[in-house]
Amino acid sequence: MHDALLDIIGFMSRPEPDVELMSAMAMPLERALLPLLVRIDRRGPIGVVELADLVGRDYTTVSRQVARLDELGLVVRRAGTRDKRVREAEVTELGREMADAIDRMREELVGELMADWTNAERRDLARLLKRMAADMNEWVVRRKLEDAE
Questions:
Q1: What pLDDT is stored for residue 21 in this prediction?
Q2: Computed over its alpha carbons, how large is the radius of gyration of the chain?
Q3: Which residue, 109, 107, 125, is CA-closest to 117?
Q4: I need a surface site. Which of 16, 31, 40, 149 has the fewest CB within 10 A?
């Protein structure tokens, strides 16, 4: 299973699908900004430190990249809702439209890859992946709570 997960992560991290996606959409966006925009859309409003943790990048790099998304009008940054010292990013309407377009293009790609799968196989995979992701997220939360004690 570990090898399969590494292969999936590797595939999703390859530049080719994103480069193809950007050229099909004529996006004025650097490839490194795509995962950030999608994560902000899904998890926002979100602080830069939390976002950096989610994407496995350095805080300072993510901060510069979020500033770039802000310059492009795809996100806005504001004081945090829970902690005013934390700057949170949230997608704009334009950012949401772009994230939705990215989702559609990626769904098309996965649809092509799974063209010979049955609907039941697709549903089973989605259900099991959601369960695994929920368990992983729960593990992260438990670890943070343990570290805080």
A1: 75
A2: 17
A3: 125
A4: 149
Query: What are the respective helix, strand and coil percentages of the chain, to the nearest 5?
Result: 70, 10, 20
| Angle at which helices 48-55 and 59-71 cross, to 10° | 110
Q: Which of 76, 99, 95 is nearest to 87 (CA)?
A: 76
The values of phi and psi at residue 83, to 5°, are -135, 110
Task: Answer for the pair 69, 61: CB distance below 8 angstroms, yes or no.
Answer: no
Cβ contacts of residue 69 below 8 Å, gap of 6+?
33, 36, 37, 40, 75, 89, 95
Q: Scan for tokens 């595939």, then name that residue.
A: 11
Give the C-alpha separation, 130 to 124, whole Å. 10
E strands, 109-148, where? Answer: none
Burial 107-116 (b: 16+ CB within 10 A, else e): eeeeeeeeee
